[in-house]
Amino acid sequence: MTADVIDGKQFALQIRERVASHVSELIDSKGITPGLAVILVGDDPASEVYVRSKGKQTVEAGMNSFEYHLSETTTQGELLALIGQLNSDTAVHGILVQLPLPKGIDESAVTNAIAPEKDVDGFHISNAGMLSTGQKAMVPCTPLGCLMMLRARYGDLSGLNAVVIGRSNIVGKPMAQLLLRESCTVTVAHSHTTNLQQLLSDADIVVAAVGRPLFVSGDWLKPGATVIDVGINRIENAEGGTRLVGDVDFDSAKSKAGAITPVPGGVGPMTIACLLANTVTACYRAHSLPEPLELSI
Ligand code: GUN
């Protein structure tokens, strides 16, 4: 068997097009322009690249982008004051504070200071709680993107066996909650799991988000499984340079799986597309308008 390679770039493009069409409808019929505020503290080069890309794609989708680049020496109090101001700004429908934050700033305190209805990252404890209790939540972007790809492949996911590898608050835990909501039988494995190979042998769906390069061998998969690889790891290649690989050994998995996301070009592009989708959803909810069903859960 040769797995279908799921094209995340193409998928993300489709989501961005849908987002853009909802944005133009909001502008044309209601005079409302969705707005996303992104706060970057410090000068981490990788974070600067992400933030620039988020701003660019926000504007391309027709939304307002409000960018705040604060210095490395910003205090927690100053950051919380800015969040408070954005919480009460009606032109801002989504707020994202880029992580990681400089040492000395408490990430949980900052995340939980964002108004839950504007928390387009879905990191606020109240959104985590609402997701896990089956209420309307803002859903973290990466797991939302993974779910969209799985729904596109299967339609109905009920009864499928899913193994999520990784238990982070950002990916593993919300992913498991989303799959439970879809009536999958969900197992959460992690770096201390001793029988991963056995668990994977019966998994229809594998979501790998453990952050270890090539952690999952293709031989361990159930034939025909769908593999969603969230890992982005840089390793040395044979020529002394580096290359990006996922948590799954793509080459061996490709001959056993039914479908697999590549790294790069799989889950990665979906994250910003889902951030834009969450911003539009937050805008519809803020104005008590019926939200587009295909952009959220
Ligand atoms: N840093 C890396 N990825 C993310 C993300 O999805 N959201 C935030 N806020 N920070 C990040």
Question: Care to describe what's here?
Answer:
- By secondary structure, the protein is of the alpha/beta class.
- It folds into two domains: 31-115, Rossmann fold (3-Layer(aba) Sandwich), CATH 3.40.50.10860; 141-269, Rossmann fold (3-Layer(aba) Sandwich).
- It is built from ten helices and eleven strands.
- The chain has helices at 8-30, 45-60, 76-87, 107-111, 125-132, 141-154, 172-181, 196-200, 250-254, 268-286, and strands at residues 4-5, 35-41, 64-70, 94-97, 161-165, 185-189, 205-208, 226-229, 233-236, 242-245, 259-260.
- The strands form three sheets. It has a six-stranded parallel sheet. Strands 3-2-4 form a three-stranded parallel sheet, with helices on both faces. A two-stranded antiparallel sheet has the order 9-10.
- Helix 7 (172-181) links the parallel strand 5 (161-165) and strand 6.
- Helix 1 runs parallel beside helix 10 (268-286).
- The mean pLDDT is 97.
- Bound molecules: guanine.
- Guanine is lined by residues 96-99, 121, 141, 271.
